[in-house]
Amino acid sequence: MRKLLALLLVSGIAMMIGSTEVMAQDGGDSAGGYQILKQYFIDGDWRFMSFVLICLILGLAFCIERIITLNIASANTDKLLQRIDENLKSGDLNGAMEVCKSTQGPTASVLYEGLKNADQGPEAVEKAIVSYGAVQMGLLEKGLIWISLFIAIAPMLGFMGTVIGMIQAFDEIARVGDLSPAVVADGIKVALLTTVFGLIVAIILQIFYNYIISKIDGIVNRMEDASIALVDVMASNNVFK
């Protein structure tokens, strides 16, 4: 996953550099939506807007990495419990543990910890499940702090661009000595465009963030249900001595 994150980051930065080079040469006469977006990027001062774009690239890289990881972690808990039950019915505790070890995802890891403590009684099993479940919860939420950081930083950078644009507008007024709209138009345009781009980046990342949170909640709920079901399965098959 680290290689994927690095690849996405390098690709995004390469695209940004290539786009800015093309932007510097473009006359902005093309009517396509992409060309219009590039022109707005230039008008908002691409040297400053690049920081907003970097937030988007990094944020999306973390989002994609989390989504891929969570999709891999989403196991069929009903099928997993059924296979565990089949092994326990035949008295094969080690076989049930092997089923968990061969299954990807946090649910299988938590159930494995529970089965490993079967000889110590149901209380020990529940304690092991709760303790290791907290560890798996932390792993599921890995990287979310960075996505939250980029969601917060992007609009801040946009608002900073707003302040810089207004400063440019007032500097131009002081230089020309005239308050006509033509004098302040460029500075105000920079101010508005940086704000818009910063908010757009924050909105995009917020949508992905909420989707990731919902995926984590779903996995945690299935993990808790499977943990409760495991204790019942172990009790019904007289695993506890």
What are the main properties of this structure?
241 residues, mainly alpha, 9 helices
Describe this entry's structure for a reader.
The protein is an all-alpha fold and 241 residues long. The protein has two domains: 2-73 and 150-214, no CATH class; 77-140 and 222-236, no CATH class. The protein is built from nine helices and no strands. The chain has helices at 2-25, 33-43, 46-73, 77-89, 93-101, 106-116, 122-140, 144-176, 181-236. The radius of gyration is 27 Å and the shape is rod-shaped. The chain starts with a helix and ends in a 5-residue tail after the last helix.
The tally of beta strands, per DSSP, is 0
Main β-sheet, in a few words? none
Mean pLDDT: 78
Radius of gyration: 27 Å
Shape: rod-shaped
Helix/sheet category? mainly alpha
Give the percentage of residues in beta strands. under 5%
Question: Brief description of this entry?
Answer:
By secondary structure, the chain is mostly helical. The chain has helices at 2-25, 33-43, 46-73, 77-89, 93-101, 106-116, 122-140, 144-176, 181-236.
